[in-house]
Every structure is written in C-alpha cells, then in structure tokens.
C-alpha cells in the first residue's frame, strides 16, 4: 500500500450532492451497459479473463483512479481500491489489525462485474457502482473516516467460464486450492492457468492471500435481490439486510453411451447416454420436491452433439440448495442413486455450507437503516465465502420487482438503486466513522 498512508479528509471539489446521485448512477450505468451485451438477447456475457472482463477491470481501475483511491490486485487478480491505508497503524491500536471478528481495520464494500451467460445488468455491477457512489456521497458530506474504506471487484464470481462460483474469493481464502483453480477448464478446453496467462497474469501467483484478508475488518456487499421477498412486503422498503446464505453445491453428472446412427440402429441395440441423463434430470426435480429444497440442471454437454447421432456421452451440471444442508445432501444422494442405476458418475465440484453473516453486524445494519427487514437468500456470494473464512460480513439487498435474476429481465428501479446507495453510504459512515 502507499507509504504516506492516512485518510483523505478534504472533500473533493467535484464531489456530488446527494441529489445528484441519480444522475451519477445513470451515467455510470450507461458506461457499463455496452460491455459484453448480447445484441439479440439483451443479456450479458461477461466471463472471467476475457476481453469483456478486461474492459470491466479497466473501467473499475479508471473509476478508482478518478477518485484518488489506491488500487491493488491480490494473488488471484481481485481488485481492491482503498480510501485510506489499511496497512497503516491505527490510532491506539496494533500495527496488524488481525482478521478476528471486530478486528482488522478496513471497512470494505463492493461486489463483482462478471455475469452468467445471458445474465442481467444488476447482479454484481450494482454493488460495485453503489460502492463508488457511496464514497462520492461520503465525500460530498465532508465525512472523515476513522477507518480506511475499501472497494473490491471480485473476479470470476459467477463461475460461468470455469464452473466454480466465487473463484476469486475461494482462492484467496484457501477455500479452493491454487492447483484446482489452475486446472479448471472452460468449454473450449482452455484451463484457467492458460486463460490467466493469455490475460497477462501469472497463474503461479494464485493462492491464499492472508495479507489481503488482514486488511478487511468488515465486509458489506450490496446486491440486487434475487427473489421477491422485498417486492411482496410493502411499497416503502427498497432495501433489506442479508442474514444468511443457504448451503449450496454443484455436481457434475457423466453418463456414457455409444455413438451410432439415429436411423439405422435398432432401439434394442442402442446405448443412448441421453436416456440415463433424462432420468437423472427428472430425479433431481422429484428429489428436490421430496426433500424440500431446490435442484436445477441448467447446463448440458452432449457428445457428439448431432441431431442424427445417438449420444455417446452426456455431461450435465446439477445445482442444489436449500435452507437445510442435510436435506440438500439427501436430495443429491437420491439423484446419484438414479444416475448410477444408468451407469452414471456424479462428481462434486463445489460445496458451500450454510453461511450465517455476523449477527451483531446484521443487527447493527438493520438498526442503522431504520429497522429494515432481514432476509436469508438461496444465492451464493463472495460475502459468504469471506464470512466462512472468518471475516465479519453482511449484505444489503436492493428490491427486484420481478425477482428474476441471471436473466436479461433482471431489474431494479432507479429510485431503489439510489436508495441502495444511500443505505450503503449510511452504513459505511457508521462503520468507518465510529470509534467502535
Ligand atoms: Zn452476484
């Protein structure tokens, strides 16, 4: 970090009044809008270590530079921008704040800029844009933080390219090993190591990054809500506090058959991998219903992939989640049993246990914001990975009127987005300004 340290205390002359937030928000949104947007679907294709990802990282760096923030990149390539120096000795404290709850020195916010295939505009970018605008709003007030404030842009949160969600936070916390990350491959067979090299990064640098984690005293991620809890509540509540994340995992299902001609091969002679796959997909649905959780098979690869060829191999990916970890595990066992009856193999790709955000922090945020609702969610987030690594974390959710997410239809009203920025501003003011 920079050696001269200290916290900027002079409001920037161009810092906006709160009334300008909506205009500022619209301008930043417009700058991001074309990056990775599919002309036909209107959805986004922003995948880790691609051209689009590069452009988004450059945009983030430029926004941080324009605000005079100190930008660093950790061992995985996540970008961190600091207002104040998290490595400087705190007044009356020890040099290294430590990562124990309540310890550490920085108040960090932010989210991610990547997307799922044909994703929406809000999942991720809303948290990054809101973080930058919250800093503007704090400076407009002449706020002087007692603790440094950081903004993070986590890389590869969706796992759209290499199959493991929250890869950026998993690697720096050690939840995923560097070897595993490097060897993950995308649909074209490109490994993450190769993708990193092509993007000008050194894959050998990957690994746990305690130095980066030590700087985070508290992490608050703002995110568009991915359900309708707020919409169904009332008209006056555009923001909620996230209390916990359901346990969730991903499994790969492989079924083997034998390729042959779709016209000349008698039904009795076929070894059709698709049949076992179909049974497995239906089993996932009924297991989820029986166990009270949710299960989805949303990605499939068929070999050879010809309309007139019997499939010799089908690989599908199962995503399962629920409030109760045992129920999710049981549902996946049900699916595994059916897949194995058809000669299939089910391999666990990731498992994230129930994540409870810091209860004291959740209460503090909800109280600070006037007693707003507290919600659990079925969606995974980097905030959850950090919480499981012992970082004091929580989330803010901004209302989504349809609840649709991971789709071009994902939406949040501009007024609600500004309410989110104001809530985040208030939370940062509380956490970074207080002596607690
Ligand atoms: Zn997200």
UniProtKB/TrEMBL annotation:
<feature type="binding site">
    <location>
        <position position="406"/>
    </location>
    <ligand>
        <name>Zn(2+) 2</name>
    </ligand>
</feature>
<feature type="binding site">
    <location>
        <position position="123"/>
    </location>
    <ligand>
        <name>Zn(2+) 2</name>
    </ligand>
</feature>
<feature type="binding site">
    <location>
        <position position="223"/>
    </location>
    <ligand>
        <name>Zn(2+) 1</name>
    </ligand>
</feature>
<comment type="similarity">
    <text>Belongs to the peptidase M20 family.</text>
</comment>
<feature type="binding site">
    <location>
        <position position="158"/>
    </location>
    <ligand>
        <name>Zn(2+) 2</name>
    </ligand>
</feature>
<dbReference type="InterPro" id="IPR002933">
    <property type="entry name" value="Peptidase_M20"/>
</dbReference>
<dbReference type="GO" id="GO:0016813">
    <property type="term" value="F:hydrolase activity, acting on carbon-nitrogen (but not peptide) bonds, in linear amidines"/>
</dbReference>
<keyword id="KW-0378">Hydrolase</keyword>
<feature type="binding site">
    <location>
        <position position="321"/>
    </location>
    <ligand>
        <name>allantoate</name>
    </ligand>
</feature>
<feature type="binding site">
    <location>
        <position position="123"/>
    </location>
    <ligand>
        <name>Zn(2+) 1</name>
    </ligand>
</feature>
<dbReference type="InterPro" id="IPR010158">
    <property type="entry name" value="Amidase_Cbmase"/>
</dbReference>
<keyword id="KW-0862">Zinc</keyword>
<dbReference type="InterPro" id="IPR036264">
    <property type="entry name" value="Bact_exopeptidase_dim_dom"/>
</dbReference>
<keyword id="KW-0479">Metal-binding</keyword>
<dbReference type="GO" id="GO:0046872">
    <property type="term" value="F:metal ion binding"/>
</dbReference>
<feature type="region of interest" description="Disordered">
    <location>
        <begin position="85"/>
        <end position="104"/>
    </location>
</feature>
<protein>
    <submittedName>
        <fullName>Putative N-carbamoyl-L-amino-acid hydrolase</fullName>
    </submittedName>
</protein>
<feature type="binding site">
    <location>
        <position position="308"/>
    </location>
    <ligand>
        <name>allantoate</name>
    </ligand>
</feature>
<feature type="binding site">
    <location>
        <position position="250"/>
    </location>
    <ligand>
        <name>allantoate</name>
    </ligand>
</feature>
<dbReference type="Pfam" id="PF01546">
    <property type="entry name" value="Peptidase_M20"/>
</dbReference>
<feature type="binding site">
    <location>
        <position position="112"/>
    </location>
    <ligand>
        <name>Zn(2+) 1</name>
    </ligand>
</feature>
């Amino acid at each position: 970090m920079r050696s001269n340290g200290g916290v900027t205390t002079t409001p920037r002359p161009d810092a906006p009044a709160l009334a300008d937030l909506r205009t500022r928000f619209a301008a930043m949104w417009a700058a991001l809008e074309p990056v990775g947007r599919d002309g036909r679907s209107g959805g986004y294709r922003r995948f880790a270590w691609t051209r689009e990802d590069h452009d988004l990282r450059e945009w983030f760096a430029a926004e941080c530079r324009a605000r005079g923030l100190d930008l660093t990149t950790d061992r995985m390539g996540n970008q961190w921008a600091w207002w104040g120096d998290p490595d400087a000795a705190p007044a009356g404290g020890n040099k290294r704040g430590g990562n124990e709850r309540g310890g550490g020195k920085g108040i960090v916010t932010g989210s991610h800029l990547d997307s799922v295939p044909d994703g929406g505009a809000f999942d991720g970018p809303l948290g990054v844009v809101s973080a930058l605008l919250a800093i503007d709003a704090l400076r407009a007030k002449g706020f002087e933080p007692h603790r440094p404030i950081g903004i993070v842009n986590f890389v590869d949160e969706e796992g759209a390219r290499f199959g493991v969600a929250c890869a950026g936070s998993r690697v720096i916390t050690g939840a995923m090993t560097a070897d595993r990350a490097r060897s993950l491959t995308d649909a074209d067979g490109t490994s993450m190591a190769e993708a990193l090299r092509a993007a000008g990064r050194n894959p050998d640098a990957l690994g746990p990054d305690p130095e980066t984690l030590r700087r985070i005293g508290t992490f608050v991620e703002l995110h568009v809500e991915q359900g309708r809890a707020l919409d169904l509540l009332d008209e006056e509540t555009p923001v909620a506090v996230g209390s916990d994340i359901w346990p969730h995992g991903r499994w790969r299902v492989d079924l083997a058959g034998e390729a042959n001609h779709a016209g000349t091969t008698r039904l009795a002679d076929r070894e059709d991998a698709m049949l076992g796959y179909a049974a497995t997909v239906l089993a996932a649905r009924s297991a989820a219903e029986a166990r009270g959780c949710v299960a989805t098979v949303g990605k499939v690869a068929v070999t050879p992939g010809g309309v007139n060829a019997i499939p010799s191999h089908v690989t599908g990916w199962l995503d399962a989640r629920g409030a109760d970890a045992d129920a999710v595990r049981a549902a996946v066992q049900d699916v595994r049993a059916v897949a194995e009856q058809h000669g299939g193999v089910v391999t666990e790709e990731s498992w994230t246990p129930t994540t409870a955000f810091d209860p004291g922090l959740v209460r503090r945020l909800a109280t600070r914001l006037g007693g707003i609702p507290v919600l659990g969610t079925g969606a995974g987030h980097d905030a959850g990975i950090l919480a499981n690594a012992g970082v004091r974390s929580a989330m803010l959710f901004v209302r989504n009127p349809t609840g649709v997410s991971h789709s071009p239809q994902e939406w949040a009203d501009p007024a609600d987005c500004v309410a989110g920025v104001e809530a985040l501003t208030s939370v940062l003011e509380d956490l970074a300004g207080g002596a607690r």
